[in-house]
Amino acid sequence: MSVFGDTWSYLLDGASWAGDDGMLRLLLQQLLLTVTALGLASGVGLPLACWLGHLGRGGFLAINISNVGRAVPTFALLALLVTMDWPGVDTFGPYGRAGIATLLALTAFALPPIITNSYVAVHEVPGDVKESARGMGMTAGQQFFRVELPLALPLIVGGVRLALVQVWATATIAALVAGPGLGRVITDGFANTYYGKGIAGAVVVALVALALELLAAAVQRMVDPLPRAAVRRKTQTLVAAAAE
Amino acid sequence: MQVRRTLATVIATSTVLLGAACAGDDLSKDSANPSGSGSTAGTGDKGAVKISGQNFPEATLVASMYEQLLDAKGYDASVTLVGTRDVYMAKGQFPDGVQVVPEYVGGILDFLNTTANGPKAEPITTSDAAASIAAGQSLLEDKGITLLDPSTASDTNAFFVSKEYADSEGVSKLSDLEGKSVKLAAAPDCKGRSDCEGGLTDVYGIDITELLPLGYASEQTYKSVLDGESQLGETSTTDGALESQGLVLLEDDKAIQPAQNLVPAVSSEWIANHQDAADALNALMAALTTEKLTELNGQVTVDRAQPEDVAKSFLEDEGLI
Minimal Cα distance from A124: which residue of B? Predict the structure, then answer.
């Protein structure tokens, strides 16, 4: 039987999805892991980068420090974390074995795109717009929340979107420390010369990555203050007016 | 503005540096290539020999023995170690682009059997090396692979527990674990295999509650057993690192392990014209024993000696080079 035939039949077999080490549970586990890591990274990265972008300084330092998360291979960080006494490999609730270590490694990986994009987005709001806001007597807070943030939002969300897809696909490395997620299907398949299974795992990861990407793209389009169609511009102006 | 300019400078500089780094990389690769993987280069007048193998300590050590032995015979040998058998058995690798691989009788035969006949193929290997090779002869011929003389040194899967567990549960052989529930830390391919999870469950009647794919004799596997996360760990009979860590090897008293004698796997086409290489490798196989190999492994994994140095002194002591 061909490898792709194997892949197809593995994907169609209900037994591959069911049970404790079935793909469905692993998929949900990896989604949970991805969302949590992204949430942690956003919680740390967004306020910091937006604030620095607003101030217009310190971004060089923040971007380069967070880039350590990109420069240090995520797997190396993960391997290091699991050998330490804390976080180690202890099972962490629904996150499974080495849950905390995996979360930390993925959070570090998610930080660079979030920080870089947010900083640049807020910082690059045109100077004359900022000046007008100040001229109208806005406080720094008003200037940020009513002028800079709306204009910067598409790019900020772009950073989160980038991080989301990257973290989702990278989360598979957790399998190398017997951790959570769909990576286990891939490593199991290849380790047992059952390539169909390994490829099936990779296909599922890729399909979900696409779905997440489309979802995030839709969100990004939604927050764009300069929509494409005139009709939509009209509705949004009305919505904005109603909101105020 | 100032920050923007700084950023632009940084990006421009890093682009240049990246370019330089790439160029440097190319150069260093070029200069490293002619001398193989960085160890002693032979005179090379009998042509180049590519050796591949898996990159766990014992295979690294044995591959280094092959390399130095063939170099001494006038070949220009080079070693490329990879993560799994699949990589060097892929198309264009062994036995086409790679001529010699340090192998294990059961390991390579089972691999050929499952790749030819599917993941659930009937096993062809037994605890008898010669019988196993005879059973796999047609598979070997199909691939163009020749196995030279198997060594008496044998590296089968084996299982260990921590000293505390052995003492408190009174365990010294695998059958002592019958009916007990254990977590097993093992290689990712362990599940269902008759020499691993399958055999432990079916032949020994051990209840394996969870299988952690932490690797074969890996640091992670040792740690998992030492921490008490899992009770049973997978390693090899030639593991030189167990005793110093307070780990106890359990006897395979019901013989679920197929023969895993060390054996050089060579390209049939290449070996036909290089009988002297076959003679040299056969002499090496005759010199190795399980005890000797365990001791040499210990020098590498416990004493942190370089595999090349350990291989060299062994070859010299045995008068092979």
Answer: B4
